[in-house]
Amino acid sequence: xxxxxxxxxxxxxxxxxxxxxxxxxxxxxxxxxxxxxxxxxxxxxxxxxxxxxxxxxxxxxxxxxxxxxxxxxxxxxxxxxxxxxxxxxxxxxxxxxxxxxxxxxxxxxxxxxxxxxxxxxxxxxxxxxxxxxxxxxxxxxxxxxxxxxxxxxxxxxxxxxxxxxxxxxxxxxxxxxxxxxxxxxxxxxxxxxxxxxxxxxxxxxxxxxxxxxxxxxxxxxxxxxxxxxxxxxxxxxxxxxxxxxx
Length: 246
Fold this sequence. Notes:
eight-stranded mixed beta sheet, two-stranded parallel ribbon, globular, 10 strands, single chain
């Protein structure tokens, strides 16, 4: 694996972010995890004392610049995932509908901007998690699909800007294409959509050839990070059966 010195994982107290933080720390990478929940961070800290945890809202004004200066990562992972209200859009207020834009997309914008303007050291890597919802829509999650699609676009834009500026940075977009089982968001979405189409939960989940888990996602991302040189392709779709270029 390429030798990373410091990793900053935003939204890394659970799900794929947590799995990645555990793996990175286990590889000897100085890993800092940022999340809003003190309880989930305390649980992570108890499992892996070597991980540094910070409880704060990464979407707040100025936090991205502050953290990027303080941690000075050569690996930045953006795994934050807004939990949308699972109802049709006309049953959501605008604040509910736009929730993912004001968290996931805002965080991707702020941290990607900081990576370009501070900037990260040459050779730095940014991994930003989009969603399969951004590929085909998700009618019960309000503006979530559009927000995650924009997050994917931002990652592509950042790569192009980094190349124009000669920064030698790599921006990867990761797109889990099916519901991630064993996560809060995955379960909520599965329950909402199985109910909406009148299928038992187990039958709904069986539509995929193999289940997708946070651990599988983390392992695929780690395989990408092991490259000594940046991979030619910068966007990847992950399913229960594997990872391929988007």
